[in-house]
Amino acid sequence: MCAGHFECIRQAWLCDGDMDCPGNDDENEENCPHRCPEDHFMCGDQSCIHKRLKCNGFNECIDGSDEEHCQKRCNEEYEFNCGDKCIAMDLVCNGKRDCENSADEPTDGSCGRNECEELNGGCTQECVDTRAGHYCKCKPGFMLVNSTLCEDINECLEPGQCSQVCINLKGSFKCECVGGYARDPHNPQRCKAMEGHASLLFAHFIDIRKISLDHQEITAIVNETRGSTALDFVFKTGMIFWTDALDECIYKAPIDEGSKKQVVISEEVTTVDGLAVDWLYNHIYWTNNDRDTIEVADFNGDMRKTLYQDRIEQPRAIAVYPSEGWMFWTDWGQNAMIERGGMDGKFREPIITEEIRWPNALTLDLVLRKIYWSDSKFHSIYSCNFDGSQRRVVLHSSEYLPHPFSITVFGDTMYWTDWYREAILRANKFTGQDVETIADSHATPMTVHVYHSYRQPNGTNHCTPLNGLCTHLCLPAPQKSPSDSKITCACPDGLVLMSDGLTCESKDGIETRTQLPNPDPIPITHNMEGIVPVGHKSL
């Protein structure tokens, strides 16, 4: 248990050279004699990293000492590669051996000979002669294959080449934007939202705040919370939901009248670190870290159901995509992983199971159909497809990600909270570059969300009208095949579903019915379902 009884960490993480507690007391002198294990490297600040992380191209050490004295690749235009080191090109063919293997002083007559004069040196595009030998180059938009052949580069394979839609052309490419976005006149590769101004909502433990991203003005939304942790919102109605770790409740309130908060769930709510709102079907989903469950309820908390409760150790972050009926969550238990499953409790499957230890944060990029998550143990932010494929490291930094807790994305930017830095930071979501602190919280920052209508695109609520004929819960279901139903009737805990698949009864056989919810009369003005690039009929 960390100081302040605020957080628990695994025993194996104590004195491992990595600061895991918010106050770093798991690595202080009182708890740990200062040393590094034999298979670790000591940074300049005396922190420890595993030796396999040294010279891997990333700064694990805050001072960058793990990437010092590492062999770098030679620049063919200015340097000659001896095999074990690079030397200046003007040292080649000077009659003096500068490479240990004498590669800079060849005896085959290549010194002073222009190989490019004969059949272009075997190059399909450009041949460049050097003091000892030659090399082939390609025109912009092409890449060198087998040292002589130039092939077209598919620029669209590089993340972030375009904000949204990338179309490869021979020797070039072009970018387009999906509906609701327009190309930035200053940079045609970037897309910007055509409507609205984005803000950040974040739980501050002692309150909930809103930050305008235009001029970074901070506004208090809910004052004097005891332990606000996870939060989410419904943009079309301006309602926010949040969990309170000390009150052990889930609350809701209008975003402009936070003082009018109402209790949604109050029983058996202990450690709820993750909360997600289904803005189409009007449900909330949350992870319960003490009960090791994932649960759902309607907006009033009247109908509550446990969806997943087996093979869950330490569930934390959760996100939903109601248009397709999928939900995603992280588990930082002994077998840490990211899983996905139907929002109706079916089709559960792990999608990230390797190289993952403490996945605190998770969010969805609905435009690019990507998952973003952070791992507090690896000090990294990752992304992958909805099925876990094409995983990549977006940002790895012990300096900027000492202890990330929550993450959200919008446009070309990702935002995250960090306990150790007590701040909200942002960076490019493709490259991890341009890291910037946008708010110092001076307290423990918890969950953060971009507040904008495009974060909750319109879609069809297949439960309306008549609640899908369900007597109680009507939940969205994922389509694993075209014949799968788009909705599933479900019963609150304590009731069972009858054979008709619609009606709930008590376990003693007494049928129960509930009043069907009225369809939401408030229209949604932004429709991004079936996202299609501007000017295209299909993608």
Describe what you observe in this structure.
It contains no helices and 41 strands. The chain is mainly beta. Among the domains are: 57 residues, no CATH class; 311 residues, Neuraminidase (6 Propeller), CATH 2.120.10.30. It has a four-stranded antiparallel β-sheet with strand order 15-14-13-36, with no helix packed on it. Strands 16-17-18-19 form a four-stranded antiparallel β-sheet, with no helix packed on it. The chain has a four-stranded antiparallel β-sheet with strand order 20-21-22-23, with no helix packed on it.
Structural class: mainly beta
Contiguous helical run count = 0
**Tell me, what's the shape?**
globular
> What's the CATH H-level homologous superfamily of one domain?
TolB, C-terminal domain
Structure keywords:
539 residues; mainly beta; Neuraminidase; 4-stranded antiparallel β-sheet; 41 strands; 0% helix; 37% strand; globular; disordered C terminus
